[in-house]
Amino acid sequence: MSDNRIAVGQSLPAVSFQRLTDNGLVTLTTEQLFAGERVVLFALPGAFTPTCSAAHLPGFISLAEQFFQAGVDRILCTAVNDAYVLDAWGQQQQAGDVQFIADGAGSFAKAIGMATDSGEFGGIRSLRYSMLLEDGVVQLLNLDLPKTFEVSKAEVLLAQIRQR
């Protein structure tokens, strides 16, 4: 595990993400995405992968309205994929209110200590996690060990938010 892993109480580093919009590809900074907002951010190893498609993303899609009712302004999903892949996956999954921010080169995952090398599977990927951020500061953080899916689930994060 990484010594430079982000922790509760720390601010997100300044990095850029890409998102595909109706107007084409846009680049967004952490400040643009998180400043002044209460945001759920979750990351997964990759779009179209089995656990990500069958359980991780669908949990956040189905509970989106409950997150909003609990005071969350935005739900963001990130992965070390390009914006075109994430957009196609979001359409295929009917992601609704979940927005995708591409960490194509893994810069964000590396900057917060959440990058892992999956070898032949796909190289650098993100570990699976979920977090609640307020104004870019980590309030809650749930990190799954590689090849597990236990604590980063939407249900777990929503219960923690409701307890706050």
UniProtKB/TrEMBL annotation:
Pfam families named among the record's database cross-references: Redoxin
Keyword Acyltransferase tagged: no
InterPro entries xrefs: PRX5-like, Redoxin, Thioredoxin-like_sf, Thioredoxin_domain
Cross-referenced CDD domains: PRX5_like
Coiled coil: none
EC number, UniProt record: 1.11.1.27
Catalytic activity: a hydroperoxide + 2 glutathione = an alcohol + glutathione disulfide + H2O
Domain of life: Bacteria
Alphabetically ordered keywords of this record: Antioxidant, Oxidoreductase, Peroxidase, Redox-active center
Span of domain Thioredoxin: 6-164
Entry's family note: Belongs to the peroxiredoxin family. Prx5 subfamily.
Function recorded in the entry: Thiol-specific peroxidase that catalyzes the reduction of hydrogen peroxide and organic hydroperoxides to water and alcohols, respectively. Plays a role in cell protection against oxidative stress by detoxifying peroxides.
Protein name: Glutathione-dependent peroxiredoxin
